[in-house]
């Protein structure tokens, strides 16, 4: 950028008027450095926001265990987390959505791995189902499962969030494992793998939400015995 300044000491003589008059001289002015998004300076506001978000999720998990979903409130979460209610609504539109994220983002998340592929579909499915059952029988996680399913029953958006982040992940991994088993000739290729996945996941959810006390590895194995036997059976043909 250029600008003009008057410089009195460097005057010149105006021949038309025979007078001395100041003249203008061009000087360069340093241009401003263009702003960039890669600012190396720290952004304390963002750090504070993330700290508040994590405090809200932690407070939600604590209150779920202490008072359950029904008595949980945005005001109670805000008070426990040390933030205002507006801060919570800045990230979540409802109590149910806060609960969904709090449950799914805990420090030790639920078992989300797909069944292993050791070459034995029976062994792999049991390993996967046993890991899920251990999560579901844990008292703390059982409370959180009941809370998030209650939230999902009240709010379609929360139900969709739960499906995308938990049910769909588990269901897809299980179905993929059965497809591999079908290609290897271990199970019937015409079986409804989605129905089998729903039977296992639905049974586990029922055990928890109904507060059944008989969920165990043995009870899970009894269910798997029936389902895996059906997968191996020859398809029924008409006479």
TrEMBL record:
InterPro entries: Homeodomain-like_sf, HTH-type_TetR-like_transc_reg, HTH_TetR, Tet_transcr_reg_TetR-rel_C_sf, TetR_C. Keywords: DNA-binding, Transcription, Transcription regulation. PROSITE patterns: HTH_TETR_2. Residues 50-110 form the HTH tetR-type domain. One of its GO terms (molecular function) is transcription cis-regulatory region binding. The keyword DNA-binding applies. Residues 9-18, 35-51 have a biased composition (Basic and acidic residues). PANTHER family: HTH-TYPE TRANSCRIPTIONAL REGULATOR RUTR, TETR-FAMILY TRANSCRIPTIONAL REGULATOR. This is TetR family transcriptional regulator.
């Amino acid at each position: 950028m250029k600008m003009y300044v008057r410089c009195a000491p460097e005057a010149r003589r105006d021949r038309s008027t025979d007078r001395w008059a100041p003249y203008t001289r061009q000087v360069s002015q340093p241009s401003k450095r263009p702003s960039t998004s890669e600012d190396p300076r720290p952004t304390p506001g963002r750090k504070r926001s993330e700290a508040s978000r994590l405090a809200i999720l932690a407070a939600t998990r604590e209150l779920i265990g202490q008072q359950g979903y029904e008595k949980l409130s945005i005001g109670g979460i805000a008070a426990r987390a040390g933030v205002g209610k507006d801060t919570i609504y800045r990230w979540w539109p409802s109590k149910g959505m806060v609960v969904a994220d709090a449950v799914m983002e805990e420090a030790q998340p639920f078992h989300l791995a797909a069944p292993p592929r050791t070459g034995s579909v029976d062994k792999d499915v049991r390993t996967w189902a046993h890991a899920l059952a251990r999560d579901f029988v844990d008292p703390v996680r059982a409370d959180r499962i009941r809370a998030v399913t209650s939230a999902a029953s009240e709010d379609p958006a929360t139900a969709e969030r739960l499906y995308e982040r938990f049910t769909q992940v588990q269901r897809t991994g299980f179905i993929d494992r059965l497809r591999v088993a079908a290609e290897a000739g271990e199970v019937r290729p015409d079986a409804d793998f989605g129905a089998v996945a729903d039977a296992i996941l639905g049974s586990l959810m029922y055990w928890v939400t109904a507060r059944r006390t008989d969920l165990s590895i043995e009870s899970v194995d009894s269910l798997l015995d029936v389902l895996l036997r059906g997968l191996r059976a020859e398809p029924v043909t008409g006479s």
